Amino acid sequence: MRQLKLMATTLVLASLLSCGKKAGEQTRDSIIETKVEQLLSKMTLEEKIGQMNQISSSIKLEEMGPAIKRGEVGSILNEAEPQRINALQNIAVEESRLGIPLLIARDVIHGFKTIFPIPLGQGASFDPDVAYQGARVAAVEAASVGIRWTFAPMIDIARDPRWGRISEGCGEDSYLTSVMGAAMVRGFQGDSLHLASSIAACPKHFVGYGAVEGGRDYNSTYIPERLMRNVYLPPFKAAVEAGATTFMTSFNDNNGIPSSGNQLILKKILREEWGFKGFVVTDWGSAQEMITHGFAVNDKDAAEKAVNAGVDMEMVSHMFVEQLPQLVKEGAVSETTIDNAVRNILRVKFQLGLFENPYVDTTKPSVMYDEAHLLAAKRAAIESAILLKNKNNTLPLSNKIKTIAVVGPMADAPYEQLGTWVFDGEKSHTQTPLAALKKIAKERNMRVLYEPGLAYTRDKSTQQFRKVTNAAKRADAVIVFVGEESILSGEAHSLANLDLQGAQTALIEALKRTGKPLITVVMAGRPLTIEKEVNLSDAVLYSFHPGTMGGPALADLLTGVATPSGKTPITFPKMVGQIPMYYSHKNTGRPATRNETLLDQIPVAAGQTSLGCTSFYLDAGFDPLFPFGYGLSYTTFAYSNILLSATKLQKKDVLTVTFDLKNTGDYKGTEVAQLYIQDKVGSVTRPVKELKRFKRIHLLPGQTEKVTFELPISELAFCNIDMKEVVEAGQFGLWVATDSNSGKELSFEVVR
Ligand code: BGC
User: Fold this and answer.
1) Which CA distances in Å does 70 have to 10, 95, 666?
2) CA distances for 268 relative to 175, 262, 308, 549, angstroms
3) For range 580-593, the mean pLDDT
4) Mean pLDDT along residues 463-474
5) Cβ(402)–Cβ(474) below 8 Å
6) 283 Cβ closer than 6 Å to some ligand 1 atom
7) Is 283 an active-site residue?
8) Separation of 427 CA from ligand 1 center, angstroms?
9) pLDDT grade, residue 386 (50/70/90)?
10) What is the pLDDT of residue 612?
11) How far is the CA of 79 from the centre of ligand 1 (A)?
12) Which atom of ligand 1 sits closest to the CA of residue 250?
C-alpha cells in the first residue's frame, strides 16, 4: 500500500517536474519545496535525525540493513558496487516507513575510472573547460554505478607545497581556483541535477584548510577574517554561484574555532550572506574531533555545537543519531534547527530525482573508459604539462634523433602516474610514457632503449645506474621520468623536504655526465624543489600526476605532435625555507631592492649595516624557482598595443583591455595570456599583484590576434578596513603578460 502511495507521489512529481517553468505554474523549485514540507510533516524526530546521518560502507551489511529500515541513515559513503547500491536503496525505499532514498557518496576527485590529471595539474591548464570535462566524465562514470554525490571540488587555496593535499586543489590563487572550481561544480552537476548522469558536488573544505600550519595536515590555521574574505572564501562563493548543492566543513580550527562548530562561516557567511540552499556535511568525523581539539567536552557537546553552528549531516561518527534526540528533548537543540537541516538534505535528494528513480540501471552498457573520456583525459594531460626549461630548443625531439633512452622510475609506472585519490581507476588501463613513446617511435622509425634505473621514486640504490648510462651513451637523447609516487602526496602525506626522493637526483647527475641531451619529465603531486635538476637538464617538462592518459599526452608533447601550454598554478620555491612564497604577497614597508648583498658576497667581519635592511633571504635571495603563471612553449609570443578603454573609470564601469598577441615562432601554439592588477593604496594594504583574467589563445606561426579582456570595476572590490566588500577609489597598476613576473606596467584610476 505504502509502495503504491510512493509511486503515485513520485509520478505526480515527475509529471510536474517535466512541465518546465511556465507562467502561473509552480516552478520545479517550488514543487520541490512543497514535497519537502509534505514529507517533513510526516517524519518523526528520529527519522529526521536519521537523514542527518551518513554512514560508511565499511559497516557490516547485517547492521546497515536494519538501520536503514529504521530510517536512521540518510547517506552512505564509499559504496561503489551497483548491485549492492540497488539492494541498499531497496531497503530504504521499500522497507523504511517513509521510503526516503539514500544518497550514495564517494570521493570522485579527478576521475572515477578514467583518471584525469590531479586537480593541481588541471589548474596548470588555466582552462575551465578541462576542469568542466574532467568533472563531467567523472560524473557520467560514477553515476553509472549509482554514486550521486562526490566530495569535490577541493577549492582550498594552498600556498605551502609541503601540505600533501595541495595536489587536490588548483593552487595558490583565489581567482584561478574560483574559475576552475566553479567549472568543476558545473561539470559534476551537469545541465540539471535531476539527470541520471549528474552528481551533487561538494566544495570542500570549508574553510581555510589549505593554510594549515607548516603544511602539516589537519593542523591549525590562523586566518584573520579579512584575509579569509579576500583570499580563502572567494572560490567557495563562486561554487555557490555555480549551483553547488552541498558543502563540507574542514578539519582545521581557525583562530581557535574548528570549522564544524563555526557559526560565522556556516551561518552568517554561507547561509545569510551567500544564500546557500544546499546542505553542509562534516568531514570524516570532524564534528567529533572537536572533542580532541578541546572545543567540546564529549559527543553530546560536540553534536550540539555542530548542529547549532549549521552542520546538517554528520559523516561517519554517529553522534547525531545517538545524541540529538536527547538534545532536542532538553531544548539544547531546537526542532526548528533539525527541521532546517533535514529540509536542506531532502531538497537535494529531490533535486537529484532520487525519489522518482532511486535505482541505477545495471542493464545499460558500460561507459567506463569510453573513447571520448580517454580523449578528454589526454587533452587535459596535454594542457596540464608545463615546459619549465628548453635550452636550445632541445624539445620537441627533432627527426634527427634516431635513438632515445627512456629512463627513470616514472617512465613506466602505471599506478603512480594516476596520482592521489584514485579509488576506482585501474592501472591496467593506464597508458604510460614508455608505452606511448614506443608506439610513436615505431611510426617515426626511432629506437627506444628503456632502463628504469630505479625501481620506484624513493629507491636509493644506484646499482642499476651503469645500465642506464650505457643506454644513454647509445642514444641521441635521454628522457628521464622522475617525480613522486602517488602515495607521497594527498591526505596525510605532508613532507618537510621537497627534493626529489631516493637516488633520483643522483640518476640525473649520472645521466648529465654522459653528455647527451637530457630531458627531465617530472610527475608529482606538488611543486618540488628541483633547482639543481633544472640546471642539470636541457629541458624540463612538469606534468604533475597526469592520469590515465598521461603517457600519450607526454609522448605527443615530447615529439612535437602537441605543444606545451601549461602554466604554474603555484609558485615553485627554490628551497623549502622560502615557503610560503606566493606572487600576490604584500609589498611590506621594505621590499627587496635586489641590490642587497647575498650570503656569499658578505665580507668577513662585515659591519652591521652592510646587508641591506629589506625583506629577503641572504641564502635564497629574492626569487622563486618559477613564478606563478609561468610556462614556456615551443614557439614564442609577443604582446603589443596593450590599450585600456579608459584611464579614469567609475565603479560602475567596465574596463576593456585590448592587445595584439603574435605567435613569433615556428610552431603553432597556445598562450595563456594573463591580466594582473595592483590596487596601489587601500584602506588596508593590498597585494603587489592579483590575477583578474586569463585566456587561452591558439595561434599559428606568424598569426596575430587581437585579444580583449573585459574587467568590471566592481571586481576590484575587496574586504576593506571596515570589513566591507568595496571598490576603493585610487590608482591601479595593470599588466597583461605571459606570467606574474613579466609585462610592462600600465595604470588607470578609479574615481569616486
Ligand atoms: C577527507 C575528505 C574526504 C572524506 C571522505 C576525509 O578524510 O578530508 O576530503 O572527502 O575523507 O572520504
Assistant:
1) 22, 8, 69
2) 23, 10, 12, 43
3) 97
4) 98
5) no
6) yes
7) yes
8) 22
9) very high
10) 79
11) 14
12) 8
Q: For ligand 1, is residue 160 a contact (CB within 6 Å)?
A: no
What whole-number distance in Å separates Cα of residue 664 and Cα of residue 414? Answer: 38
One fold for both 378-559 and 637-750? no
Residue 14 has pLDDT above 60, yes or no: no
What is the percent of the chain where pLDDT is above 70? 96
Express each pLDDT in 301-334 by its tens digit: 999 999 999 999 999 999 999 999 999 999 999 9
Name the residue with the closest Cα to ligand 1, atom 5.
Answer: 284
Dihedral angle computed from the Cα positions of residues 351, 356, 360 and 364, in that order, rounded to the nearest 10 degrees: -110
CA proximity to 562, closest of 425, 698, 470: 698
Q: What's the rounded Cα separation, in Å, for the pair 105 and 108?
A: 9
- The residue whose C-alpha atom lies closest to atom 8 belonging to ligand 1 is 283
Q: Which of 107, 156, 173, 283 is catalytic?
A: 283
State in Å: Cα 636 to ligand 1 middle.
Answer: 42
Question: Ligand 1 centroid to 283 CA: how many Å?
Answer: 6
Count how many Cα atoms sit within 13 Å of the Cα of residue 246 in the half-sphere of its side chain.
Answer: 38
Q: Domain 637-750 belongs to what architecture?
A: Sandwich (2.60)
The CB density around residue 240, as the number of other CB atoms within 10 Å, is 20
- Decide: 151 in ligand 1 pocket, CB within 6 A: yes
Domain ranges of the chain: 378-559, 637-750
Number of H helices, E strands in the chain: 21, 25
> Which three-class secondary structure state does DSSP give residue 711?
strand
Instruction: Report whether residue 491 contacts ligand 1, using a CB cutoff of 6 Å.
Output: yes
Q: Is 204 touching ligand 1 by the criterion CB < 6 Å?
A: yes
Amino acid at 355: F
Could you report the per-residue pLDDT of 688-715, keeping only the tens digit for each?
A: 999 999 999 999 999 999 999 999 999 9
Residue 26 pLDDT class (50, 70, 90 cuts):
low
Q: How far is the CA of 500 from the centre of ligand 1 (A)?
A: 27
Pocket test for ligand 1, best of 151, 206, 207, 252 (most atoms within 8 A of CB): 151
With a CB cutoff of 8 Å and minimum separation 6, the contacts of 658 are 641, 642, 643, 645, 706, 707, 708, 709
The reported pLDDT for the residue numbered 608 is 77
Longest dimension (CA), the chain: 94
Mutating to test ligand 1, I would choose from 107, 219, 246 the residue with most ligand atoms within 8 A of its C-beta, which is 107
pLDDT of residue 4: 38
Model confidence over 79-129: pLDDT tens digits? 999 999 999 999 999 999 999 999 999 999 999 999 999 999 999 999 999
pLDDT of residue 278: 98
CATH number of 378-559: 3.40.50.1700
How far, rounded to the nearest angstrom, does the alpha carbon of residue 497 sit from its chain's CA centroid?
23
Ligand 1 center from residue 43 Cα (angstroms): 30
Assign 21 a pLDDT band (cuts: 50, 70, 90): very low
